[in-house]
């Protein structure tokens, strides 16, 4: 089994910063791509940022220049540094990982989500 656990969400004022973390644990041989998604109330889940194992990154236009995704492969952890936060960034943020188990079973794993609220 593989689990992803997010942390770091909370309440922040507009213009503030927050850093989210997501740690993977369990039976892991290799983690390929990792990413962050978010879902606001009554809206579809949307892609925020992705980072393949090779280190290349991609961002949604709405967060480009404000958010930074990174990963620590030794810790099986992905981060999302969020700066210049806006009220429209308010959502539950989920991390995602493309995982290979020791038996070479490929799994797509989701975290439980962490709530980010941007409000004055």
Shape: elongated
Structural class by sheet pairing and helices:
mainly beta
Mean pLDDT, to the nearest integer, reads 97
Distance between the termini: 40 Å
The portion of residues forming beta strands comes to: over 45%
Unreliable sequence segments:
none
Overall radius of gyration = 14 Å
How many distinct beta strands? Answer: 11
Give the topology string: H per helix, E per strand: EEEEEEEEEEE
* Range of helix content: under 10%
**Tally of DSSP helical segments:** 0
Largest sheet: 7 strands, mixed
Provide tags for this entry:
4-stranded antiparallel sheet; single chain; 11 strands; 120 residues; 7-stranded mixed sheet
Protein model, in words:
The protein has 120 residues and is mainly beta. The protein has no helices and eleven strands. The chain has strands spanning 2-7, 10-12, 18-26, 30-39, 46-51, 58-59, 67-72, 77-82, 91-100, 106-110, 114-118. The strands form two sheets. Strands 2, 4, 5, 6, 9, 10 and 11 form a seven-stranded mixed sheet that branches. The protein has a four-stranded antiparallel sheet with strand order 1-3-8-7, with no helix packed on it. A hairpin with a 5-residue loop joins strand 9 and strand 10. The radius of gyration is 14 Å and the shape is elongated. The mean pLDDT is 97.
